[in-house]
């Protein structure tokens, strides 16, 4: 299976008044063609920053300080100053012109909050026209609007609503619009950042079902960022668990749920309510993630880990092959 995306030793820092916070700490991963990779973990563990860094959209005062991101192109992409050749291209080395040619067409992003991502002064159709004409300046407005209508209809939105403003849509409908804007250029890789945040469970289920159908229809590869493991159980082929900017475990979804290796992964799964076990006590992870400006030595999960050893306080564990066929960063498995 061919890898669409390859990330190597990526580091992202945020410069704050108190000092430098390392939000992504030497992350390496791959995403296979037509597969969905779930990024899981608590809020503040670096999931969204990693997703934005892949597209070089890290907001100020954050910046990529090291590492490389590679994207596989299935065709040549011409742009104003040259041509990106078919095959693997390094996203982190592209100039702004080349980067704009890749964004939207080859890789797209669904942001968390659709109300703040959509321009309230523009009609929905104007959003589609802007995106399509940015990549195809010769495209007429009427043609762009027709493309937008087709995408909206595939997401269960009446085509005539393309003339409405964002405030005229419900939260679930705005999220569908954001998904449509991400898909209108038919990208190969879609990064969805908490696509069902703040939606009720019924609308959430509808959105997830539609995304699964769109994945098959458009032959998509996806990265799904969420803290909801239940969502990943339904949608992801593989799951990477993050903690304080580091990858602590990667495995197929089935394997991760059946045989989690890292104590943090085990604790996350224990904290998920199970309606089939009404007598099960609610579980939680004690404490809170550490301060990234003043990081702890060793494994940063050790103050909250029930299986912590002396070595966990001194040495950072490396990713090693785990017993379940995935990889895990934990001294319990020889991760020194």
Describe this structure in words.
With 336 residues, this protein is α/β, with parallel strands linked by helices. It has two domains: 3-106 and 190-333, 3-Layer(aba) Sandwich (Rossmann fold); 117-186, no CATH class. 29% of the residues lie in helices and 25% in strands. The strands form three sheets. It has an eight-stranded mixed β-sheet with strand order 8-9-10-3-11-12-14-13, with helices on both faces. A four-stranded antiparallel β-sheet has the order 2-1-4-7, with helices on one face. The protein is globular, with a radius of gyration of 21 Å. The two termini are 30 Å apart. The mean pLDDT is 91.
Largest sheet: 8 strands, mixed
* Low-pLDDT residue intervals, each spanning 5 or more residues: none
Look at the structure and give the mean pLDDT.
91
Shape estimate: globular
- Tell me the number of helical segments per DSSP (H or I, 4 or more residues long): 10
CATH topology of the largest domain: Rossmann fold
Instruction: Give the name of the CATH architecture of the largest domain.
Output: 3-Layer(aba) Sandwich
Element order, helices and strands? EEEHEEEEHEHHHHEHEHEEHHEE
- Total E-strand runs: 14
N→C terminal distance: 30 Å
Radius of gyration: 21 Å
Query: Structural class, please?
Result: alpha/beta
State the fourth-level CATH superfamily of the largest domain.
Answer: P-loop containing nucleotide triphosphate hydrolases
* CATH C-level class of the largest domain: Alpha Beta
Percent strand: 25-35%
User: In what order do the strands lie side by side in the largest sheet?
Assistant: 8-9-10-3-11-12-14-13
Number of domains: 2
> Residue share in helices?
25-40%
């Amino acid at each position: 299976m061919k890898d669409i995306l390859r990330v190597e030793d990526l580091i992202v820092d945020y410069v704050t008044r108190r000092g430098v916070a390392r939000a992504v700490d030497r992350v390496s991963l791959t995403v296979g063609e037509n597969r969905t990779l779930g990024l899981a973990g608590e809020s503040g563990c670096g999931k969204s920053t990693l997703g934005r860094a892949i597209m070089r959209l890290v907001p100020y005062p954050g910046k990529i300080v090291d590492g490389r991101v590679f994207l596989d192109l299935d065709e040549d992409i011409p742009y104003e100053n040259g041509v990106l050749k078919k095959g693997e291209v390094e996203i982190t080395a592209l100039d702004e012109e080349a980067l704009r040619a890749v964004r939207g067409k080859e890789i797209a992003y669904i942001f968390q909050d659709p109300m703040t991502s959509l321009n309230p002064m523009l009609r929905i159709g104007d959003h589609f026209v802007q995106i399509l004409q940015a990549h195809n300046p010769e495209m007429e407005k009427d043609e762009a609007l027709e493309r937008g209508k087709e995408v909206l209809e595939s997401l269960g939105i009446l085509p005539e609503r393309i003339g409405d403003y964002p405030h005229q849509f419900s939260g679930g409908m705005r999220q569908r619009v954001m998904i449509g804007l991400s898909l209108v250029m038919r990208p190969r890789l879609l990064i969805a950042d908490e696509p069902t945040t703040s939606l009720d469970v019924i609308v959430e289920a509808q959105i997830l079902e539609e995304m699964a159908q769109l994945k098959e229809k458009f032959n998509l590869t996806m990265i799904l960022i969420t803290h909801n493991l239940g969502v990943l159980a339904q949608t992801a082929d593989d799951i990477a668990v993050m903690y304080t900017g580091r990858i602590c475990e990667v495995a197929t979804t089935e394997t991760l749920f059946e045989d989690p290796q890292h104590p943090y992964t085990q604790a996350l799964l224990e904290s998920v309510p199970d309606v089939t076990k009404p007598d099960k006590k609610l579980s939680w992870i004690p404490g809170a993630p550490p301060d990234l400006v003043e990081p702890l030595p060793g494994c940063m999960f050790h103050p909250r880990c029930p299986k912590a050893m002396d070595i966990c306080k001194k040495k950072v564990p490396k990713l090693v092959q785990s017993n379940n066929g995935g990889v895990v960063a934990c001294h319990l498995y020889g991760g020194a």
